[in-house]
Amino acid sequence: MDTASTADLPLPTPDGGWPGSVLAVQANYYWVQLDQLSPSDPSEGLSEGPTDGRGRSDSLAGGAAGTPRLLCTRRAKLKKLGQRVMVGDRVLVTEPDWVGGRGAIAAVLPRRNCLERPPIANVDQVIVVFALKEPDLDSLQLTRFLVLIEHSGLALRVVLSKSDLAGAAERQGWCDRLRQWGYPCHCLSSQTGEGVLALLSELQGRTSVLAGPSGVGKSSLINALIPAADLRVGAVSGKLARGRHTTRHVELLQLPQGGLLADTPGFNQPDLTCFPAELATCFPEIRQRLQRETCQFTDCLHDEEPDCGVRGDWERYAHYRVLLAEAIAYQNQISQQATPDARLKLRMGQAGQPHYEPRLAQKRYRRPSRRTQQQALEALYQDLDS
To answer: Which range has the worst mean pLDDT, 120-134, 254-268, 319-333?
Structure first.
């Protein structure tokens, strides 16, 4: 690859780093799309960078076409601080090798939001994808995903895939049920193309992430939305009636009409990580009832308390009680854990200015004192003399 002139390269920030966005994480390496900061066009004389091993370098283009894309590592200081780098993070890259397409992530900029599962940051909306058939739609499993996204505070949409495998009455029945829950739904089929263009219009100009169990057709949906992606798809296991994992890592892909879409690995049983007092806010039905009714106790968990305005004959109340028991168990588990030590320690600089340094928590990094070394030598001499 020809080396670009200095005027053609992106300009670093005053902090000495090149800002960019993390588009994919594979093992200990990060694909970072750098921003276009130079008034001149950096694409002249620059390669678009190495491919991701499947020849799909174009699918990793998160910014303007031709902006540099680097395969980066994480600086050792970030590892000591325990700073995790996630897909969607805004980062500063140092030590760029424009010829080899390599760099190092030196800092992670503040996040607008983040999800732990799937692990991604700075998203605008989450598209919860469930299949109507193969595998059959489970209302409790769907509720777990909805509660997970509701707890994060992100906007969400529900997509029911594989609509070509279900009858019109079944499709309409699920749509009516979801509307009663408080979620408008969108039926589509990646095989026939039904509903794909309507979903595409809702994704334009936004960073969206697909979330759902394995085998519901997330990769097939992305192939329909982004034909150039050419993601691998798999069939549902006939023995277990469960999808096989075909996506192994989170990756941001460029939509043809603008915007980013994240493909994520499927998971069938999302962990509940909210406390009992927070769980009620994750159900639209409870929020609507609390606007009309009141409970006798301000800290009511809507379980067995008297004069509760939430308990009643609504479909997902049984699911709420199942998740409430799990939230209580989670709270008990957290309360029994010891408080971890701070990862930073306050130090005073030569000019008297305070600053923080990483705390070396593991003893193998600490040097033994001279007294300890002397005692060890004396003990060794005594053993030899004896």
So the answer is: 254-268
pTM for the model stands at 0.72
Residue 12 scores a pLDDT above 70: no
131 forms beta bridges with: 161
What pLDDT sits at residue 135? Answer: 85
